[in-house]
Every structure is written in structure tokens, then in C-alpha cells.
Amino acid sequence: MIFQISKELYDQLSETEKYIVDFISENEEKIPFLSITNIADKTFSSSATVSRTIQKCGFQGISDLRYRISQQSDNKNTEESPYAINKILDQIYQEATHTIDNLQITSILKTIEYIKSAEKIYLYARGFTVQIAEEFQMYLQLLGYHTILVSDVQWMKQTNKIVTNKDMIFIISNRNSTRALAESARMARRIGTKIVVCCCKSPTELEKYSDILLLGHSEIIMKSKGLISYSYISLMIIIEIIIKYLSS
């Protein structure tokens, strides 16, 4: 039984909440296949009531519940069951949650202030993060901001000749592993350019030169042929928060 709650807690639940607890306990094997809306429909309640009940019983939410069920069902064939998928869904949920928890509202608002006051916005990125920077650039340009993408190392080496103290640099880097980014930030710092670093690893040399650090949380996606690939979900979440605020 997935719900290990005391009699005192159970007695404090409303009749609807008790019905939800009983339904989940009696149908544990089906829960991985059901959304929170499905459970609400089957218990004649609302999604909010189901979510609240699950949290009262010690879980963070439906994703956490399904993952815990998968943990106690390791003897099942994961190739033919939803348990492996639920574990992945929980990892993605935790990644997004950790990213949001890491972010400081004051840092987001200060970043918005830099963007609005800058003559030019330079987006620095390398590798896979260039794709995220390109999307960020597109949205900023649609909003009327003068945005320039810098992804070539040779251009980064010319940072002191490109940017001014009236501009801002927004650096997007997952693991902060590109030396050229730190060198660019160091040069821009000397000029007096505002620098925002959006990354998923701390501490690193890059953030020493930043005015604002927007720190996300990145998990390993896969390991293949000696290479490790990390998720970029948190970077996209941070970019989306900024764009939605600017466009609101």
C-alpha cells in the first residue's frame, strides 16, 4: 500500500479525500497510467482536490506519487510497463522544480532592467546552447530589442572591440566549460558592460565576472561513447520566464 498514513490523519480527511485515498490504494497498479484529471473523474472530484489529497499524504504531487509506486515495483518488467517512464517524468519534474527554486526574483527583475536599458544585447553561447540563444534572440528581436548573437570564438576574442559600457552581455552556458566565454566576460567587465550569466553549474570562473547569476539545475540525459549529455530544460525555463515578463 503506497499510502502509509496514520489513523489520525485519515480521520482528518474529508469524505471526498478519503474516497480518493481509498481509490488510489485499491488501484495502485493503474495509477501510472492515469493523469490527475483521470483520477479526479473516477473519484467524482476535482484535479485540485486530488492534488491536495496527495500532498496531505506526504507526496509532492502526482509525479512523486507515480515515481514512488514505480520504486516499490522494481520486480515488474520495465520494458513493458510505465514505471521507467514515470521515473523519467519525475526526474524532469525535479529538474524544473529545482530550477525555479534556485531563481531569485530580484535577479530576474534586475536582468529585465538591464535588457530594457541596454543599447545592444549581446547573447554569447557555444555548442548546443547556441540553439537556445537563437530562440532567445528571435523573441527579443520580435519585442523590438537590438540583439546580436555571438557564437564564434574568434568574435568572442574581440569582445573588447565590440561591446561598450552601454550594452549588456547575456551568456548562456550549461556547464561553463568554454574558456572563451570566461575570457569574454573578463574583457567586458573591464569595459563596464553589464553581464548576466545563465548557467547550470556553480561555482565557476565565469560567474566571477558576472553582475547577475541565473542558476538552473541540469541532470544527465545520457552517456554514450565516453560523452556525457546534460539537459537544457532549465535554461529554456529561465529564458521563457524572461520573455513572458517582457511581453506581458
TrEMBL record:
Keywords: DNA-binding, Transcription, Transcription regulation. Residues 111-248 form the SIS domain. Residues 1-76 form the HTH rpiR-type domain. GO terms for molecular function: carbohydrate derivative binding; DNA binding; DNA-binding transcription factor activity. SUPFAM superfamilies: Homeodomain-like, SIS domain. The keyword Plastid does not apply. GO terms for biological process: carbohydrate derivative metabolic process. This is MurR/RpiR family transcriptional regulator. The lineage of its organism: Bacteria, Bacillati, Bacillota, Clostridia, Lachnospirales.
